[in-house]
Design goal:
alpha+beta, single chain, eight-stranded mixed β-barrel, 34% strand
Length: 372
Amino acid sequence: MKIEAEWMRGGTSKCWVFETDHLDKAHTKLDDLLPRLFGSPDSRQIDGVGGATSTTSKAMILSRSAVEDVDVEFTFAQVGIEEAAVDWGSNCGNCSAVVGLYAIEKGWVVPTGDSTRIVTRNTNTGQIIIQRVSTPAGALPIVPDAQMPGVVFPGYRVGLGFQDPAGKTTGKLLPTGAATDTLVAGGTSWTVSMVDAGAPVVIVRAEELGLDTARFDTWKAGVELQLDTLDLIRRQAAVRMGMAATPADAARAVPKLAIVGPPTGPDAEDDVNVMMLSMGKPHPALAITGSIALTLAARTPGTVLNTITGSTSEAVLRLRTPAGVIETWSEEHEGTLLVGVDRTARTIATSIIHLPETLGNAVEASLATATR
């Protein structure tokens, strides 16, 4: 069996984009189908389309919405690499940037004016994301020319505005009700903030990890030596946030973990230095859903991040990441808060993926049994 798909870059991630109807034709559970298509379990994903990293082992599943005020519904799947598993517990903000572009390229939404507005809904979280795709003179540019940190080549500019993002997973911006909490991991007490906006995130101070806040370039090496402890913190946070019954039950993808520290020296003009973990490893840039959580954390008195940024009315937050500075923005309109960031996106390939023979045989056998 063959499955149609688009290979797309969204922000600093790559994902395979499927339409719901095309996957339905496989008559196979997605928890079985996606790992096999991606080549998991295998650290190289050598017999599949996965990219063997957390930022390239991703799928987006799209459909035109039947809801009047929404244009496109989409579901994000973080496909395991070493495990034949799929994590459905969160959204990917970077990959979200492909949704509006896909809708325009497929004719689901007709461009209007210099910027086309597409209302999208993420089914993992129920989050409404207002996407604005740059369409000068009512069309996508012939050659994409928008740049962003962490990506060498240009793409089409896509603005992502998360509408009232607080508490979409746990029900509250501060799931424990406190701006800071104390967790014990590796025999040490850690002061953290647990925030749910865009995605659930646990925030840890760089100083408590012994990281040199004046040398952001050294963080990655220091963090990699403490990954086991950081995962213990993350798993305990999952229990405190009501996302898992026990630390062992915590999902791999959420909650996310962010390490923050005050900028110093030539970077002092930025608001905060950030390193985020993705699937247990340092993220090469920043999870965009995590950046939404950090933005609201900075606005919330008493959080670990707020003690660094201070209470500010600035609409823009500057986050220094390993890939460069990412700016998030906030705006309120008629009682609705939009927290967002600008990304770029591009279609890399239009493809036909061949369903592996073992799965194909199983599908045919099950269909034959069902029709007897």
